[in-house]
Amino acid sequence: MRAMSSMNDNAAPQEGHARLELAGITKRFPGVVANDDVSLSVRPGEIHALLGENGAGKSTLMKMIYGLLEPDAGSLLWDGRELRIEGPMHARALGMGMVQQHFALLESLTVAENLALTLNRHGRWDPERIVRRVEEAEREYGLRVHARRPVHRLSVGERQRVEILRCLLQEEPLKLLILDEPTAVLTPQEIESLFAILRRLAAEGLSILFVSHKLDEVRALCHRVTVLRGGCVVARSDTAQVSVEELAALMVGDAPPPLRERSRPTIEPQVRMAVSGLNLPTHDPHGTELVEVGFELRQGEILGLAGVSGNGQQELMAALVGERAVAPQAVVLDGRSVGHLSVRARRRMGLRYVPEERLGKGAVPELSLVDNALLTRWPQALRWGWLRLAQARAMAEVLCSKHQVRQAGVNQPAASLSGGNLQKFIMGRELDQNPEIFIVAQPTWGVDVAAARRIQDGLLALRERGSALLVISDDLDELLLLSDRIVVMSGGRVSPVRPVEETGRAELGQWMGGSQDGWEAFGDAA
Amino acid sequence: MRLRLLRRAQPSLVMRILAPVLAALTAALIAFALLALSGKAPLAGFYALFLAPLSSAEGWADVLVKSAPLALIGAGLVVAFRSRVWNIGAQGQYIAGAVLGSAIIVHDPQVAGVWVIPTMLVLGIIGGAAYAAIPAFLNTRFNANVILTSLMLDYVALSGLHYLTFGPWRDPSNFGFPGSVSFPSAGSLPVIWPGTQFDIGALVAFAAAPLIWLLLRGTLFGFQVRVSASDAASTYAGFSRPRVVWTALLLSGAMAGLAGLMQVAGPIDQLQTNIASEMGFAAIIVAYLGQLNPLGVLPSALLVGLFYVGANNAQITLGLSSSLGQLLQGVLLFTLLASNVLVHYRLTRVRA
Amino acid sequence: MTTAVWVSLLAGVVVAATPLLLAAAGELVCERAGLLNLGVEGMMAVGAVCGFIAAFHSGNPYVGLLAGVGAGALCGLLFAWLTVQLVADQVATGLALTILGHGLSGFIGHGYAGESIKGLAAIPLPGLSQIPVLGPILFDHSLPVYLALLLVFGVHWFLTRSRAGLTLRSVGEDPKVSYSLGLRVYAVRYAAAVFGGAMAGFAGAFLSTTYTPMWAEGMVAGQGWIAVGLVVFATWRPLRLLFGAWLFAGVGIGQLFSQAAGLALNTYLLSALPYLAVLVALVLISRDPLRIRLNTPASLGRPFRAET
């Protein structure tokens, strides 16, 4: 094994041997090197940040530590001993716990059953004992969880607490907790209470590996940071010794171009889409019902829809775009009641949208880029029931070159594109049609900073043209950056619409967390 | 050292073509082993099964005649399966087409005129499509599973066929044997290869596959079928799922019905109790063996047709069970499904 | 009609429901693990022919039952190898199994058509079989009839009360999450498929050694498919299988009975009744899409392969 590079130990909370040490870890997937010669060490009681933008290889590295993937090369030392992690069971038996970005919870089972799957693997089968342990843990750590509830009825924050509990309660005492992007889905208040718990656990000697791409959070919480870019470690440091700007430069490499200047709306703000009294029962057994949703979307504005995911955003989108029919007058487009009209009819009226799910909805993974370019534009290539394939091909080629979609030919399947390129492709396909009304969910989710900047720029350009945009996102920071006005969705209802400059993270965060203080003050006037 | 499957970055086109070949070779090997196990001379059996039918012009004609309905039904099933509409009731639709088309003859056994054949063909198409409309209606209106409803209707159609051929439609002059009257010349498809059963119907059947290929490749409906790979994407594109379900079932049902009619008005020349002889299931194999590509259906129909003729031949010359053909079809589909793993995965050696 | 006639009719229903219960309970476990095996019909055919041959040569129908179970389990193993290991399409593999099963049973049963064996004897349960009416209906049957009833309750207990059952449900709901929790997704799916096959083989062997102690080509006659329909009808809940199996078996028996009663109905048309009954039952149960979606194992029919 090769020697670890020397590190600055000044700010670390405890001296002594590393709890976890990675050396020269390499992992290849067909076509990409996800991790290239990655080394990392975490000490007892340390909160260690693994920083990197989307696609830098953080999740792959975490999965290898937790035994979900096998490294192609390199070694892993646990408490000074070289080991091969056979799988998640083995990792847990060593005292590791991991909270993945997509929670490893089974929706139809109760919290106690979910926990029993890993906590009660041996000995007498007794899910009731788990219920009692959950209640004890609530007193001990202040983690509030309803043990007998099925998971699909829990909020995202609660689900995360279940995941953390699962790690804390495991039979082998927890020594290392891995958190993969834990704050992405939380409200600002929930983030604060999560940090408080993590600090307390670290003070008791737990090592925490905090995977994130959010610089201020890393600075606020972590002792040391390892920065990953393009699968390689580009820096290691104590967080106290680097500024946010330095971290940003390390994480991204070349600084992305600045976002375009926002122009003041020049046109008289005319209402393009009016939503009122929108009610919709859920189709999905785990979904959210819409209750009396109402707001207006005006010309030349970006309206941000904030909220923790799973609070009815998907149902709202389905109703607005025509995937699910509602009462005709519940959605009014340029003065016309359209609640009952189909996706096709509304698209003909100039309403276009980009769904949250890219591969599988925004694009069909196994179909070529030509077919995928046609997905929402097929009427343009149609003549007498036949599709003009040459025209479709040209369409796809123009789309790819204009939006810098890196691809190996337009006959390749959409699944061969990277996440960022696919999002550029899908956004480009819709933006190029200059939609009058544009609804987009999670526009920059999972794409790197440069691509995100391009996409945001495209949205602002469309706004300047005088279109009306509704941006649905989990990411409050992005909404505050892009929006003219903002509205919060919670429990299938929406808050009053507030101009961005008249609101703050704190108030929005409370609304996202379920509080309805101040909703009446604006009343129906909004 | 052990072997492991690694996912390819992209599905391999070469393997998509090679997999059926590999599957056919493996199936032939298994056939060889089965013959040896059942105590027959494997070489003689192998010859009777696969080579004898191809050693004479008459044999080729037999294979072509047997393959024709398979190619026709198979091409229809390709449309259904690619739309993710699991119509496995082709058997029933085949019977429905044959029955409805035969009605004219049964009604008037002495019927004559040039209008008879075209009318029968249209009735065959209507019969198959109408019978396929039942699962389409039950699925789009009541959300009922197409696999199960279309399959249950197979058994119902078979009961109906038995009822007719043993009952009201039985030819009284046929010494008590079940089956309708033999079709008069006005109701029989003209033979175009003299001395064999190869008639105009077989030609029509083979022409269907390229037409379906054009339909899938160039039309809006074909695009809808491709996008059906993902329900969510179909909704996003603005396509109506019920319409795809209806079209796919009506089309595949119509083709099965036409195949049924062309069998009773062609090689069989009579509505019999055993007209179907598992044709619907064999067509499923044909569709899959052609990798759900309409053009791939042609060679795979010939291969499965060869199995039919060969098994028949082996039964006559060697006294082997008539189930051998069906057994080999099953083996063939299995070896194909196993070979297909190589389209998406690569076999590599890893250190243990 | 006299009570005696009714009692023998209902006892007949209980016996006729046995193969449906066995096969459906196996298929239910398989589907709850996320595997849709449409090959039940073929596995029953293989179980029937192997059961008959073993019983014929050993002279012992119990040996026949065991052979049927073993042959069915092998079929299930083949299904699991293709769908779990080689990630083959489950619908296609199930159909392949049905076609293969038909062909195989015809091929190896070639010389046994028309032979007969001594069927399995009834074992009246002491005491219970003496209860008037209920005794002869439920407690005066051969061993597999009792086992089928026990199996349904056993499967219910397994799925709701045991650790292994919870694991199986987890794998059926989301194999990816289950895998990341360290559950042995592959092993669970293999085991479920083998169990499903074994029970289908048992059902087939019951037909050829007990129900009608003889073998004929095509003797399964769609009962495997009815069993698959039964699982949907029961919305994947084991106890509801009982009701459905008795219902469908009742329709089948009623058809025979009406002939015996001399009703002037056509035999051929009547023979379509059980299939139509399944069709109608499926439509009634599927009408509410939410109910189906709520109860269907979420990963049913979807392939799973762990990244490496």
Describe it.
The complex is a heterotrimer of chains A (526), B (352) and C (308). Chain A is built from 17 helices and 23 strands. Chain A has 526 residues and is an alpha/beta fold. In chain A, helix 3 crosses helix 4 (127-141) and helix 13 (419-431) runs parallel beside helix 14. Chain B has 352 residues and is mostly helical. Chain B has a single domain, classed as ABC transporter involved in vitamin B12 uptake, BtuC. The model of chain B has no long low-confidence stretch (mean pLDDT 90). With 308 residues, chain C is mostly helical. In chain C, 71% of the residues lie in helices and 1% in strands. Chain C is built from 14 helices and two strands. Chain C has helices at residues 3-32, 40-58, 61-85, 90-108, 134-138, 143-161, 163-173, 175-180, 185-211, 223-233, 238-260, 267-270, 273-286, 289-295; strands at 123-124, 140-141. In chain C, strands 1-2 form a two-stranded antiparallel ribbon. Chain C is globular. The termini of chain C are far apart. The chains are: A alpha/beta (526), B mainly alpha (352), C mainly alpha (308). Chains in contact: A-B, A-C, B-C. At the A-C interface, helix 2 and helix 3 of A face helix 7, helix 8 and helix 14 of C.
Total domains of chain B, how many? 1
Spans where pLDDT lies below 50 across 5 or more residues of chain A:
1-14
Query: How many strand segments of chain B?
Result: 2
Task: Find the biggest chain interface.
Answer: B-C, 51 and 51 residues
Q: What is the CATH-assigned architecture of chain B?
A: Orthogonal Bundle
Average pLDDT level of chain A: 87
Strand proportion of chain B, as a percent range, falls in under 5%
Largest sheet of chain A: 7 strands, mixed
CATH topology of chain B: ABC transporter involved in vitamin B12 uptake, BtuC
